[in-house]
Design goal:
Length: about 120
């Protein structure tokens, strides 16, 4: 079993930056992919970015060029660097992980964090 804990959310003005972190513990050797999802009030949860153990990445069109997903060498911490933030980026951001990359991309991963709030003011 894998436990995930997000941190780094907060309130920022439009155009600003934030860096989210996701720390994984437990059976981390089972992880082959991790990802960030977000859910805004009244909207469905959506994939923001995903990264596989071979460091291939996948981004939502809405964040390409502004957000960067990465993982540390130990592959137990994932990051999301968010630049040029917009009010529409406001959401609760969730970390997710699974042994199968397709499950992370499909939103069907076995492990999820509790979420961290990101609020971008205009």
């Amino acid at each position: 079993q894998v436990q995930l804990v997000e941190s780094g959310g907060g309130l920022v003005q439009a155009g600003g930056s934030l860096r989210l972190s996701c720390a994984a513990s437990g059976n981390i050797f089972s992880i082959n992919a991790m990802g960030w999802y977000r859910q805004a009030p009244g909207k469905q949860r959506e994939l923001v970015a995903a990264i596989a153990s071979d460091l291939t990445t996948n981004y939502a069109d809405s964040v390409k060029g502004r957000f960067t997903i990465s993982m540390n060498n130990a592959k137990n911490t994932m990051y999301l660097q968010m630049n040029t933030l917009k009010p529409e980026d406001t959401a609760v951001y969730y970390c997710t992980a699974d042994g199968a990359a397709w499950k992370v991309v499909a939103g069907a991963a076995g492990s999820w964090g509790q979420g961290t709030q990101v609020t971008v003011s205009s």
